[in-house]
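Internal ticket #5521
Category: modeling
Description: The requester needs a full-assembly model to guide mutagenesis choices. All entity lines are attached below as received. Residue total reported by intake: 475.
Assigned to: D.W.
Attached entities:
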Amino acid sequence: MRKSLTTLAVACAAFLATSAFGQTPEEVKKGVEQYREMLELGNPAELYALKGEALFKKKRGPKNASLEQCDFGKGPGVLKGVYAEMPRYFADTGKVQDLESRLVTCMVQLQGISEKDATKRPFGNADKPSENEQLVAYIVSQSYGDPINIKLDNPKMKEAYEIGKRLFFYRAGPWDFSCATCHAEENTRIRLQDLPVLSSPAGAKAAMTTWPAYRVSNSQLKTMEWRINDCYRQMRFPEPNFISDSVIALTTYLAYTANGGVYKGPGIKR
Amino acid sequence: MKKALIAAAAGALVVAGCASMKEMDAKYDAEVVQWMKRDFHARGIATMDRLDQDEVQRVCTQYDNKPPEAMAKQIEAGEMKKIKLPSDGKYMGDWKAGQKIAQRGRGMTWRDKPGSTNGGSCYNCHQLSTAELSFGTIGPSLNQFGKKRGYTVANQKYVYEKIYDSKAFTACSNMPRLGLSGTLTEQQIKDVTAYLMDPNSPVNK
């Protein structure tokens, strides 16, 4: 771990040293790509996953229980590969749930924590990460190498997919944006940031196999709920509620489109 | 006869299936807004009425940004009427101020304070001056815009109008309607116009 952090520091220094003016756009882009490759050698998301594991196994809440018996869709206590099949339909809640929503369910059911407390601080900051972020980092790391496999084998899953698809293309707000404004055309970027075409399998796979991710510009691990939240902020929309059906529907559309992609997260982003 | 009946029955089933698929599609179409209104909340200046589509947004969503030509023409004519030209008849401001506005990406989000100065976010999607290497490519390169098109008053007016309301020229343009939405002031649009149209601007060097 220490070695990989040293590698990270060297990579940062190398990047800063080469990011001078007077380069062509291609050179700048290549520099950014090199920087990202080097970062993958020492992804700080590992630290989040370690803290998340401790938190997951710790007895907490009024019921003084851990989250170890949480059922993420493959039975109580099974973590291997579960994230690659989420969002999914859960019969006990009668709802389509993403990972972050399911974690709340388990905190309420197993630990006796109130839903209000469990959703109080989903997104942290660089100084103080949220427990949600740490737990997410741990759980998703247990799906590394597993193919994304979302099945629309339930009317609620079909509904989530169909609504999610429509949310993706819904233009509104003062700037007339939809998700598709930035994510529906090949080979485009905002400033120097490449934009995946999320309505195509290749683009959706690129995104969904690498989120959640440690984001260097925020010095923090960011979850999928956060990713969608911050897109809506930049689209100049009102704010989506955490673990709301709409966010989960949009995630279902993206994840289904990414089916077959091999999960490689938690990833690392600019 | 029996075969024909079976075929007819199967055909009827297919037709019924298609009809119900269409019904489901219409149901989902109608439900999207309800989902959003239930699942979003106002935060700061980002109020809930932002989820309501105006006619342009509704048509562009419905036709996947490719409305029938007559409908597109109708939108463009309607948007043209919404453009407020500068009261003093001058389209050009200060290109140096325009450069700052083109660089600035802040404004109109739930984090921005009411009354704060908005940017135009131009570089997010367009190349302008070649000195700025960090530019987006969702929109076309506007480098050398004035030099290539000609430094005419007619072109100044076009640039002003395009920034004010892009949909007056392309019904379902990706570009925000920066004047109509109240993102940029008259003076700011003049400044950005100058950034594109002033012979001394780095955009035209």
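Resolution: model delivered.
Comment from assignee: Chain A has eleven helices and eight strands.
Ticket closed.
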